[in-house]
Amino acid sequence: MVLPGCGQDASKDPRQEAHRHLEKAISGLEQPHRADVEVRVFVNGMGFPPIRMNAEMRGTQRSDPGQHATDLDLRSVTTTVERQYSEDLVRDGAVRVIVLGGRTYVRNSLQSAEWRTLTGPARMVGNRGLDPAGTGAMLRTSMVAAMFRNKGQSAGTPVPTTTSGVTMRRYWISCTVDDCLKDDPDIRDLARKVYPREAVIQMRLFIDDEDRPRLLEVESEFPLGNKDMTRGVLLRFKAKLALHDHGKPQQITAPAQ
Fold first, then answer.
1. pLDDT per residue as tens digits for the range 223-249
2. What is the DSSP letter of 11?
3. Which residues contact 73 (CB under 8 A, 6 or more apart)?
4. Cα separation of 10 and 240, whole Å?
């Protein structure tokens, strides 16, 4: 008979062990880091005539969650408006979104070469239609960390997988904004400015053998518009972040205006 505490480890609960590794990875999302970003956004108008728009964006994001600061630099942005009776309207440009505390600075070359200052996060769909600047608020890793922390127990045992030649463990969660962030009202209020409260968000987090978050995939689909949706759109959002430079300081400053 083997007694506990006599030099041999008792069998470990796989779910508890998986949750312990996930907690370490979540802490990594809350440290300074850099990410290569790929985003695709699809907008389908619900009115008549139907309008379809999409955007493909690539760039980098630097984050310093401790300072509530991010710098999203989308150097390649292509938006396409599909039109029924004429050629599609295709535009190329760049978007940069810098967030420092409660202030957001945006430069969208598709609209203007000038910086504009917002008192809150940019929205994905505005008066001019699709606004890629809203991507910045949807990719905040501090918000993602809070969602995984609140729903971590439901993530279960991770699935082993190989990505870019590296063996990693994949965690997956799916929940609404209110469900994901019920224990973090401040972050929940921020998320509601971009996502409807009933929007279902699906996230996949890949971590390596050192419990570092290496890849984050975010996907959601939800309607936006007025109350009766006579001027509404259905928005689908897909993003992929390849994470680097874990814990390395990121100097993020306001743009010179």
1. 876 555 456 788 899 999 999 999 999
2. P
3. 59, 60, 61, 62, 96
4. 39
Give ∠ CA 93-58-163 in degrees, rounded to 5.
170
Q: What is the pTM of this model?
A: 0.86
- Which residues are CB-contacts of 128 (< 8 A; sequence separation ≥ 6)? 111
Structure-model confidence comparison of residues 213 and 133, the more confident one: 213
Residue 174 backbone class (left: φ over 0; alpha: ψ -120 to 50; beta: rest): beta
Residue tagged 């609209």 (tokens): 111
What value does the CA radius of gyration of the chain take, rounded to a whole number of Å? 20
What is the distance between the alpha carbons of residues 134 and 139, in angstroms, rounded to a whole number? 9
Token pair in block for residue 115 = 């910086």
Alpha carbon distance 173, 166 (integer Å):
22
Query: Which two structure tokens, joined as six digits, stand for 36?
Result: 């290569």
Helix (H) or strand (E) holding 36: strand 33-45
User: What phi and psi, each to the nearest 5 degrees, are found at residue 239?
Assistant: -140, 150
Quick check: bond before 49 cis, omega within 30? yes
User: What gap in Å lies between CA 249 and CA 234, rounded to an integer?
Assistant: 38
Average pLDDT, the chain: 84
| Predicted pLDDT at 46 | 65
152 φ, ψ to 5°?
A: -60, -40
* Residue 75: φ, ψ to 5°: -75, -20
Return d(Cα 100, Cα 199) in angstroms, integer. Answer: 26
DSSP string, 84-126: SSS--EEEEEEEEEEEETTEEEEEETTT-SS-EEESSPPPSEE
Write the DSSP symbol of residue 237.
Answer: E
